Amino acid sequence: MGTGKRGLMATAVAVVCAVTVLAAPGTAFANPTPSPTPSAGQTLAPAKDLEAVRKKLDKLYRAAARATDEYNAADEKADKQSTQVVELAKKIVKGQEKLRKLKDRAGAAAAAQYRGGGLPPEAHLVLSDDPQDFLDGAGRVREGHHATKGMLGELTRTQEDLEQYAKDASAQLKKLQAGRKAKAAAQKKIEKQITQAEKLESALQKEEQDRLAELEKEAANKAQTAWLDSGILDEIDGKATEQGKKAVKYATAQIGKPYQWGAEGPKAYDCSGLTSQAWISAGRGIPRTSQEQWKQLRHIEVQDMRPGDLIIYFGDASHVAMYVGDGAIVHAPRPGRTVTIAGAGSMPILGVVRPDADTGADTGADSGTN
Predict the structure, then answer these.
(1) φ and ψ at 330, to 5 degrees?
(2) What's the pLDDT score for residue 290?
(3) Of 49 and 147, the one with more pLDDT
(4) Could you say which DSSP state residue 31 is in?
(5) How is 180-199 classified by DSSP, letter by letter?
(6) In this predicted structure, what is the pLDDT of residue 185?
(7) Which residues are catalytic?
(8) In what order do the strands lie in the sheet with 349-354?
(9) Residues 310 and 352 sit within 8 Å (Cβ to Cβ)
(10) How close are the terminal C-alpha atoms of the chain, in Å?
């Protein structure tokens, strides 16, 4: 890979990626120049101490990311369960109305029999002296028997349906309550991790916070450099499908908007909220969470990925980003950050998944791990 691919400033590359991502592939997302060293006279905590803080913050925010996935999954389940409860309630109302009408019909039939002297139709038939009346009456008796039997059968079935609807509704309500508890527990986890991280950061001096941000960039740049040095980018030349272009266009249009856990836009996003909404905008619904995106979408080898594909990060699939081409991704990183362009190799890659069904000229593989 040429030296020109690794000599650009990170900020320049971010602008290029954001503006030209839908055009033909250009300069790769390359290694930025080294971060400037602090000027003389600055009093900073020892580098090893700040590095320990950086690792602690990374651990806290990753725990928050896992809890966010739990929250989003519980929220999605709660929505589905609420819908199911509402549908069952509608069925119960309709069933009760049907049961009332059937009971009214049964009551009318009983009243008619009473008005006939309390004798069943068969008795009236036997007492008839007119042969024609007897024959006509026999036919009506048969019809009446069929109608009564049918009505009683329908009455029984309706009652059974109502009982089943009630059982199903009760079961769904229990699941809904459990889902809400899981959602609340996940929310507590998120808030706890973020509060600890914010407390840790706020204890630092302004100069230390700036240096910490530099350390974060350096760690990401080091990982990206190692990824690029593997030569992987020379193998990646997939072209985006029309759906992929639409998804990338949506995702890159959100650059600068804040990260917010559980958010799906339009003002803020979490990582999987961004990727799922981007693909919805392209006409393809995908799972809401990064873990379900990893489980349910088709796995692609890293070297076969193309713009619009999703890169899943970390062994627990707790983060997701969208590949936009030229070795870059767009993603919602974590609390306190905004949607941004970053290096595709700046975090440990678990694998790549493809949302759109159209494979184009590329050949997908069964496994996306590298």
Answers:
(1) -120, 135
(2) 94
(3) 49
(4) P
(5) HHHHHHHHHHHHHHHHHHHH
(6) 86
(7) 271, 319, 331
(8) 298-300, 349-354, 310-313, 319-325, 328-331, 340-343
(9) yes
(10) 20
